């Protein structure tokens, strides 16, 4: 195989690249910009150093040199995208490399979303569950505070990670809304088991406390592929679910003023690497991910109104596991946030 040619100090650059990949590879395995016989520019080597630092920070390794090169190519494209977005200077949010930086957008969406089986937003019909009758008493025609943050009131369990082996975001959102409602009603904040919900196919009127390491269980669920817990003790019970009027941000605001609610959104461009600020898109209304709205407010630096959303991608993502997205944009809301809104009810 022809050796790599570097623009400066060929032996050092060549050895650095080969050490990163673990072995000499056939030309067809190399990224397009690092083919055999070509000049390996300094930019590639700087990116390779950056990739290796990222690997170390996230304890990431690969089973083969070929896989390492493929992941480097994905990482490079993602890093260049992140840099380009952050350099724009006209956005109210920032992106950053995180644990998902070696995944393509398609791989990420296939693993960490999947709320709906269809290809578009749901209709406006009421969601019913096995938990009881649907609550139709909610009205948004009430005075609401200018800002709400249920985290500040101790009513939100910190964000969890659905992990790459259990992509049931709907289960995490259901648990999150019940956790918060239970605290609002009883004064007790209890972390609940998403795995038990998954085991019952999402149709349950009670959730048990989360065990110390719920993801270590090996019993497979009927939906989502995640592990299940086996506790039969119910820490919280719900009597039903309510539905909020779609395409109405005032209705969503009134609902969130009363309790955290579940919504579905499209995962917009760059959201995979969201770091902080008020996300403004771009995104559409192809609902693919379930999240929990835990508050709303106005950003002091930009003046942008936002929804505070709890995600299930771990606390190293975003603002310690949360994202703020632009509020009061009309219609379906940013990323379709007003198209499918539900909340649990509890009667003591």
UniProtKB/TrEMBL annotation:
Cathepsin propeptide inhibitor domain: residues covered: 51-108
Superkingdom in the source lineage: Eukaryota
Pfam families listed in its UniProt record: Inhibitor_I29, Peptidase_C1
Segments of this protein annotated with the region Disordered: 197-231
Entry keywords, A to Z: Disulfide bond, Signal
Residue ranges annotated for the Peptidase C1A papain C-terminal domain, each copy included: 144-345
First and last residue of the signal peptide: 1-26
GO molecular function: cysteine-type peptidase activity
CDD domains: Peptidase_C1A (cd02248)
Compositionally biased region (Polar residues): 205-215
Alphabetical GO biological process terms: proteolysis
Stated family: Belongs to the peptidase C1 family.
Protein name: Uncharacterized protein
Upper lineage: Eukaryota, Viridiplantae, Streptophyta, Embryophyta, Tracheophyta
């Amino acid at each position: 195989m022809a050796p790599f040619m570097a623009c400066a100090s060929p032996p050092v650059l060549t050895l650095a690249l080969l050490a990163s990949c673990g072995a000499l590879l056939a030309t067809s395995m190399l990224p397009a910009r690092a083919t055999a016989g070509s000049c390996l520019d300094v930019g590639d080597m700087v990116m390779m150093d950056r990739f290796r630092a990222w690997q170390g920070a996230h304890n990431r390794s690969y089973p083969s040199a070929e896989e390492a090169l493929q992941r480097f190519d994905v990482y490079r494209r993602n890093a260049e995208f992140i840099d380009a977005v952050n350099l724009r200077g006209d956005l109210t949010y920032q992106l950053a490399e995180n644990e998902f930086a070696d995944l393509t957008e398609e791989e990420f969406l296939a693993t960490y979303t999947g709320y709906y089986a269809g290809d578009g937003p749901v209709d406006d019909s009421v969601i019913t569950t096995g938990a009881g009758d649907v609550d139709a008493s909610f009205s948004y025609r009430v005075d609401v505070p200018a800002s709400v943050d249920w985290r500040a009131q101790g009513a939100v369990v910190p964000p969890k990670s659905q992990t790459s082996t259990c992509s049931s975001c709907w289960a995490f959102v259901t648990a999150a809304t019940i956790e918060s409602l239970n605290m609002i009603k009883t004064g007790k904040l209890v972390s609940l088991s998403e795995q038990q919900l998954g085991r019952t196919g999402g149709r349950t009127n009670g959730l048990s406390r989360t065990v110390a390491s719920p993801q270590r269980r090996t019993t497979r669920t009927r939906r989502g592929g995640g592990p299940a817990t086996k506790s039969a003790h119910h820490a919280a019970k719900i009597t039903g679910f309510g539905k909020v009027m779609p395409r109405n941000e005032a209705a969503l605001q009134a609902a969130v003023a009363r309790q955290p609610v579940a919504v579905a959104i499209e995962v917009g461009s760059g959201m995979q690497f969201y770091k902080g600020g008020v996300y403004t898109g771009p995104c559409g209304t192809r609902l693919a991910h379930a999240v929990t709205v835990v508050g709303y407010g106005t950003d002091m630096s930009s003046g942008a109104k936002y929804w505070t959303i709890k995600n299930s991608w771990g606390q190293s993502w975003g603002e310690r596991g949360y994202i703020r997205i632009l509020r009061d944009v009309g219609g379906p809301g940013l990323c379709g946030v007003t198209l499918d809104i539900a909340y649990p009810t509890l009667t003591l």
